[in-house]
Amino acid sequence: MWGRITYLGMLIGFVLGEEITVNVGGLFEKSTAEEQQEAFVYAIEQVNARLADDPEAFKFAPMVKNEIDEDRPFNILKTTCDMLKTGVVAFLGPNSFNNINIVQSACDTKEIPHLITRWNNWPVRHGTEINFYPHPPLLARAYFDIVMQWGWETFTLLYEDDESLVRTMNLVEMAKEEGITVQIEQLDYEQTGNYRTALKKMKKSDQRFFVLDCSVDILQEVLSQLQQVGLMNDNYNYFITNLDAHTIDLSAYKYGGTNITGIRLVNPERELVQQVARELFAQSQEDDEQEEGEADELLDLFLATQMKTETALVVDAVNMFANTLNERKKESSVPVVNNSTHSFPCDEVNSWEHGLSVVNMLKSSSYEGVTGLTKFNTEGYRSEFELGVFFLKEGGIVEIGSWNSSKGLNLTSLPSQAFVDNEDSLRNQSFVVIITLTEPYGMLRNEIKPLLGNDRYEGFGIDLIQKLSEMEGFNYTFIVREDKKNGNFDPVTNKWTGMIGDLLERRADLAITDFTITSDREEAVDFTSPFMSLGISILFRKPENAPPSFFSFADPFAPDTWMALVVSFFVVSIALFVIGRLVPDEWTNPFPCVQEPEYLVNQFSFFNSVWFTTGSLMAQGSEIAPIAMSTRMVAGMWWFFCLIIVASYTANLAAFLATENPVELITDLESLYENKHGIKYGAKEGGATHRFFTTAEEGTLFRKVGQYMIDHPENVKENDEGVLRAVNEKYAFFMESTSIEYAVQRHCTLKQYGGLLDEKGYGIAMRKESFYRKRLSLAILKLQSSGVIDELKRKWWQERRGGGQCEGKTEASDADPLKLVNVQGCFFVTIYGTILAVIIVIMEHLLYVVKVAKKNKLPFTKVFMAELRVYLDFNSDSKPVITKESLEGNSEDQENSQEVVEEPVVEEPKAKLPEPVLEPSKSLEPSKSRSKEKRSRSASGANGKITPGSNASTGRPYGFVIPPSPRDTNRPASATDV
After folding, report:
1. Considering only CA atoms, which of 424, 434, 393, 389 is closest in space to residue 410?
2. How do residues 458-473 score in pLDDT, each as one tens digit?
3. Which of 811, 810, 828, 808 is nearest to 820 (CA)?
4. Annotated binding site for L-glutamate
5. Which residues contact 683 (CB under 8 A, 6 or more apart)?
6. DSSP-based three-state secondary structure for 924
7. The domain 664-758 is classified under which CATH number: 3.40.190.10, 3.20.20.105, 1.10.340.30, 3.30.565.10?
8. pLDDT the model gives residue 61
9. How far apart are alpha carbons 197 and 348 in whole angstroms?
10. Largest CA distance in the chain
């Protein structure tokens, strides 16, 4: 009955065109880029907006789960089942292989379409999976066609991980079939992020052709390390298989001459791609009605280049599925989705009757989207797509052709034709280059024989001009500016002085030295791209070592560690004392020859316990040895604690003894300005550094320092003079960081303090509108990208003219005291060991009481209370042996003692002492009653205690009985009386 009513409601809703909202599930791991999740939500909103005018179309709602773990299959299965129970018409994602298989199993069972947007080469089960990523065998065919087009007869495959290797195995097999020699090398086997080991190996192999397959997350770092090891110049060729290679910044590699080829599925120049990118990435921008200018077009193009492949595939997958589902709704006479019944719990056998039909419609349909034309084969793989082939040159990325899954490779231009250089050549041009004799940029050669012309000079600037000359083919002649002035504007003469004046007056064409590029200088002359980046910093003497403190032996541990150590010492001592009294095995027979003694003794008195822990801590031991399991547990944990603590103290003490404690007079610019130690400071008079401080904005710390320099002139004429003053005086010198690096390599007592106060660069100066500026700038960038400038800097800073002599004199690193958090593990081991020992001693004590009660046929509580009274008597280290007679005797003694207390005490007259008689103790056979009386008086006394030295069975002393002397009549017999 209810089923008919439900069906009737569905039919009425279908006829009347009731709007139904359906859920599309999006599964994203925690590691998945947030961009894909935003694309999923954006695509559904775009679909709803596009179909808003169609009353019969479905309205979609995103159901996103983005906290999925990759290695927890039960969780992803539970999440999938919860979403199926709620009601979904399709799943998109996840990304990891294990999760994909679990979700796919559930989708196959419930006949729910499963949309995948990542590379996946595992064979599908002819179920509900639809993969929008290009089919792997077709991708490998595209790789192979490009390699064949470039005519490579050998190449090395650089791959990231196992998935990367599987992805490129088809390429390797096809290359081998064509006779191409392939070498395979993993970039980083241990996944440490250091790829230089493998890359250096490739450099030694003289291989010049590489296929690089890795994720876009590490691609930038791999290319950077390729450049660092010298594999980025015009001798090397790379083919990058990642479809997102164009989304990273490749500008650092376009001037090195390296041949880099890549492919991409998303063409950023398409209008649809730019529109989606603008809406997806720039939703926060205001939609002002204004004319689209060149800046807007460049912004759209930039945003389009940032769209990754899987992001674009998410948009296409949602759009294509929405179109297909609405087509199915129009074709089917039975309602496709109903909110009240579209629920498929995993514990039920029902499934979506339209699911396989929608999947088949997807496989047979096509869609033109962000990633181009999309078609599938019968297995659900994308079999129709087009890849753009691009090449990296000096102007950036240029598309040189395409690869189509049906037509193959089609190149519209070759890499050599992608760029035509129309700039005027510098070949056979001649330039006059002005320099200054400033180390290490320009210096006179130290030669005995006379030198002429350019051979007289050497240095970083000299070598740099030589490298540029070799690249561009121009000639040059050096002239020297004797006063070493770079140039300032003279308001009196209204002219520039120094090297800038020489350029403007055409005495020179180029100027190179430590020439800082500033705004006022750029108004007068042009500069090339900076060949060196730097900033102002402070040069001052290294700190002197402070004398060691009186308590330096305590430095290895922090105060909280020392405090915890003292507390642990006393806690363990008390624990040994208490546990030693509670455990039965620590109460031992003082007379091994007597099998049934009347009293036992305990070695763990309080002072003995403290002595035991002290001996263990000092690694000296003691004569005390634990017997019981619980006391041995405490002792073992304490020994372990002492082992770790002593070893940590010794190791850190050695570090502290070898560590110097320098006293720094300054740390940065602020501490220097406060000037609590009478330090003088200054800069080169009239230089860019001096002007930086004196022309800084009012109220800033820089301006305050500049005003101090004006009020207290401690400036120098040359940098060399400032360095010497820093060596010999308490003088801080402001200088460019590169010059500071040069100075500290040769003066081991100097050090750079603080960071860079500004950022600037050194460039080659020339007159305005010089035609050779661009050519020289490009050449400098090529030298930087190929590492030549770094090699020149290493040569002149660290190898020549005394460089490197301070390399071995590294400063001792500071040693930090070990805090409690560093050694808390051994504290917790000791604590847990002590707690375990307490548990064991309680069990041992209870078992002992049960044993004694059973042996003497006494009540458990009576024996327990008797033992407890003895254990709590901390003033005695001995206890009587618990027997039935001793317990009854104690009761009688207590009653007698109470009666005696009530009677008046009457002093008896002293009896005459008998003569000493020596008799063997065995010949003395007193009566039973007298024996009890004697034991009561001599052994137990008033307190019921047994005096050491008496016989365990008779209460008499061992050996011969010596009557007490008159002076000993008032004390009980002891072992010394034997």
Report:
1. 389
2. 999 999 999 998 888 8
3. 828
4. 516, 521, 689, 736
5. 689, 690, 693, 709, 715, 716, 722, 733, 734, 735
6. coil
7. 3.40.190.10
8. 93
9. 56
10. 140
How is residue 89 annotated by DSSP? S
pTM, whole model, 2 decimals?
0.48
CATH architecture of the domain with residue range 430-535+762-799: 3-Layer(aba) Sandwich (3.40)
Q: Encoding tokens for residue 75? A: 């969780």
Helix (H) or strand (E) holding 641: helix 629-658
The amino acid present at 546, given as its one-letter code, is A
Angle between helices 460-472 and 773-785 in degrees, nearest 10? 110
Pick the CATH number of 20-134+307-374 from 3.90.1640.10, 1.10.1060.10, 3.40.50.300, 3.40.50.2300: 3.40.50.2300
> One fold for both 430-535+762-799 and 664-758?
yes
pLDDT number for residue 786:
80
957's tokens: 């002393």
702-729: pLDDT as tens digits: 888 888 888 888 888 888 888 899 888 8
The H-or-E segment that residue 202 falls in is helix 196-204
pLDDT of residue 261: 94
Are 357 and 324 a contacting pair, CB within 8 Å? no
DSSP class of residue 734 equals: E
Cβ of 330: how many Cβ atoms within 10 Å? 9
Q: Are 543 and 662 in contact (CB under 8 A)?
A: yes
853 membership: H or E segment, kind and range? helix 820-856
* Token pair belonging to 412: 């519209």
> 960 forms bridges with which residues in the sheet?
920
Task: Let me know: does 514 contact 541? Beta carbons within 8 Å.
Answer: no
Binding-site members are 516, 521, 689, 736
**pLDDT under 50: residue ranges of the chain:** 1-17, 283-294, 417-423, 812, 897-963, 965-978
Helices 884-902 + 860-871 axis angle, to 10:
60
